[in-house]
Design a protein that fits this description.
- By secondary structure, the protein is of the alpha+beta class.
- The protein has two domains: 145 residues, Regulatory protein AraC (Jelly Rolls); 106 residues, Orthogonal Bundle (Arc Repressor Mutant, subunit A).
- Helices cover 41% and strands 15% of the residues.
- Strands 1, 2, 3, 4, 5, 6 and 7 form a seven-stranded antiparallel beta sheet that branches.
- Helix 6 crosses helix 7.
- The protein is globular, with a radius of gyration of 19 Å.
Amino acid sequence: MKRKPEREESGFLNRSFGLSEKRPIDIINQSGVHDDGARHYDMHYELEMGVILEGSMERYTRDSSRVLQAGDIWFTGIWEPHGFRCDGDCHRVVFVIWPPALTGFHLPEAPKMNLMQPFLLPQERRPVMPHKLRQEIIALTRHHISCGRNISPARKRLFVTELLVWLFDKGLVRQSSSEAPKEQMISIAPVIEMVFSNKRFITNEEAARVCALSRDIFIRTFRKLMGVSFRQFAVRYRLSGAATLLRQGELPVKAIAQEWGFTDESHLHRHFIQHYGCPPLAYRQYKK
């Protein structure tokens, strides 16, 4: 059964994967067949990074699709709509990451190495694994998952850090022009807590006041750190809440829209098609 959100020391909330300050990383070792041939759409607060070990997978964004082969890697940003399809055997390892674990990370010997960067880049600029490095990343991934499920939270964090630093060392990600934005992340933490504590619409002006920033500085800072605008972040959180209610029961779509701060049923319908690729009722039937 899915865990309910719990408050942690940092003021953030656990989200759908149950991650927190004390358990910031999860590693999911997946192999199998999605034999229905359908596209599986998702969207979540947590960052996602994956490596294909065997077989292939087709992955989708709203604007593009790409077939990944063994040795390929993918990145999914905060509340970024994405989908995938596996028509045959596909062994992959998925790393799910609580965003503050990276935004608050700092290496004194590499002050301009921002581990969030691969997740913030536009899709077309995210790292693509060259053929000469594919066997190396497969071997690196297999080595770290060789102990099976009994991987401690600390070791998971170390492995994700090593893998991301490896990408920088290989020149697949460039260091940023400024230092890692730990202090800036602290400045927007209050509004992230506010979003996770509310189901209503929150304006940029209200969000900026909560962070004690001007509206323009808040808008620029939030997008820089999170990879999405504040409006996108907030609406996708509310969409995720609506999707949870659709999966859980038979509450009318109109009532769900009202509970999660959408103007009406059609408003929720438009956003749902845009982000999940189907209407709310179709999503409910598919997820049963």
